[in-house]
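4.2 Preliminary Data

To establish feasibility before requesting continued support, the project team ran the inverse folding procedure on a target of 472 residues. The structure was first converted into the token representation described in Section 3, and no sequence information of any kind was made available to the design step. The complete token record follows.
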């Protein structure tokens, strides 16, 4: 019987213990013939762990099998993260669910090791009661059902991205040490995946979110199915900055405030602009390789080792000097720690990176592109910053504006405009040379000079059609 129970603990029911859809049970007649009712109840409680172990093992195998059937075509091979929020059903398993599956696999390996250790203990002392096995597996009795419930809900509700992170965060705050330790080990796996996506976007301007759209930054110009960019207008820098990338609020986890997410979005777009500008001009990128490495190191420090709070600790040795099995969900002593995703440090780190990239953008857009010069020209000529120029021009045009404009009036206005520029000492400025006076004349003008004959149009209204243009 003990052998059957131990084998059932690792998900392999036999002749005496049989599987059913919702768990394991004793074969008919076994409990009545060979076991006391208390022993039968104890066997049922212990074997329930085998059902949860087998379900979690099937989950891990299913995820790994899907990954082999649908291998990723390059983790960071291109910009991804389509505008559609629905995942591709024919795609590989969701990346956050894959991370959880890998973490569950570690928990199952620790569980299987504890079962093997329990078997060794019973082989050394066959007189031990069955309740001692229940004692050895006491922490797993809570942790494994909790992990099974989590993965079942994640699959049924199709939780992905920030939704799965938030669900794990909620389940890790239950106050039961062994369940808390297990849930936090799964939460750490999703935090690593989240930071990996953030690093790819913030350091390289790439969206590592090809298929399932689980990252909180989305690319509106990406084809939903093929992962290829749409041809419609995605190449224009102004469209890429303003309309191509945006936040996917449904995938934003609670550990990242919306204000920080906006800064993350800005950082990735700024990195793409700086990189594309360097490739187009053939010059070195303003963000050096060393600076990118510093950004990656700063983001990597957001995940740091810390001791597990109030985690149960098994005694190092049992009464007979043998090593006691570890608690469920608790890593070995050399790895007894967890990852803390510090929200405050995240805000400080993101703000530091944003400030440095903003300075690089200022250098590129304002200094290198000489943006202030055309802005100064706009202020001087279109916003009447050079008032003396317009004063001279208005005085010289006083007689001309007393009659209706004709087709040749535009040429006369430009002569007077150049003369006013000479009086204001701006005729040699590059911006002034690119300016010209334009006058709109009605197409139906019937006079010899092309004067407007529109009924009811006063001289004042005719002169309101004068404008100033600047050639590029």
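Position-by-position output of the design step:
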């Amino acid at each position: 019987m003990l052998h059957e129970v131990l084998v059932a603990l690792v998900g392999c029911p036999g002749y005496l213990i049989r599987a059913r859809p919702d768990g394991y049970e004793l074969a008919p007649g076994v409990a009545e013939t060979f076991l006391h009712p208390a022993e039968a109840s104890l066997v049922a409680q212990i074997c329930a762990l085998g059902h949860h172990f087998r379900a979690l093992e099937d989950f891990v195998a299913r995820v790994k099998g899907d990954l082999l059937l649908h291998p990723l075509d390059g983790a960071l091979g291109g910009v991804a993260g389509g505008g559609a929020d629905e995942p591709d059903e024919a795609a590989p398993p969701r990346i956050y669910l894959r991370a959880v599956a890998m973490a569950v696999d570690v928990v199952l390996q620790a569980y299987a090791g504890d079962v093997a250790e329990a078997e060794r203990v019973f082989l050394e002392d066959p007189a031990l009661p069955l309740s001692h096995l229940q004692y050895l597996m006491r922490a797993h009795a809570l942790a494994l059902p909790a992990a099974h419930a989590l993965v079942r809900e994640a699959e049924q509700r199709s939780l992905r991205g920030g939704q799965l992170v938030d669900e794990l965060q909620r389940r890790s705050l239950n106050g039961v040490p062994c369940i808390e330790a297990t849930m936090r080990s799964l939460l750490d796996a999703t935090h690593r995946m989240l930071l990996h996506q953030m690093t790819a976007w913030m350091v390289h301007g790439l969206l590592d979110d090809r298929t399932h759209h689980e990252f909180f930054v989305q690319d509106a110009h990406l084809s939903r199915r093929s992962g290829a960019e749409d041809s419609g207008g995605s190449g224009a820098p102004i469209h890429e900055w303003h309309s191509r990338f945006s936040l996917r609020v449904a995938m934003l986890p609670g550990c990242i405030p919306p204000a920080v997410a906006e800064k993350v979005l800005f950082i990735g777009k700024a990195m793409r602009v700086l990189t594309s500008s360097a490739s187009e001009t053939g010059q070195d990128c303003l963000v050096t390789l060393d600076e990118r490495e510093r950004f990656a190191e700063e983001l990597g420090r957001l995940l740091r080792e810390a001791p597990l709070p109030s985690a149960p600790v098994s005694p190092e040795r049992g009464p007979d000097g043998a090593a006691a099995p570890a608690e469920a969900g608790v890593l070995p002593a050399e790895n007894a720690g967890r990852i803390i995703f510090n929200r405050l440090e995240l805000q400080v780190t993101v703000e530091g990176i944003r400030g440095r990239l903003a300075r690089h953008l200022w250098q590129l857009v304002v200094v290198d592109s000489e943006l202030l010069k055309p802005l100064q020209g706009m202020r001087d000529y279109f916003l009447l910053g050079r008032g003396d120029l317009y004063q001279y021009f208005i005085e010289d045009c006083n007689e001309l504006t007393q009659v209706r404009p004709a087709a040749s009036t535009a040429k006369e206005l430009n002569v007077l405009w150049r003369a006013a520029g000479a009086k204001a000492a701006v005729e040699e400025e590059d911006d002034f040379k690119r300016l010209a006076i334009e006058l709109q004349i009605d197409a139906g003008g019937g006079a010899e000079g092309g004067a407007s004959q529109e009924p009811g149009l006063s001289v004042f209204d005719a002169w309101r059609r004068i404008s100033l243009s600047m050639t590029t």
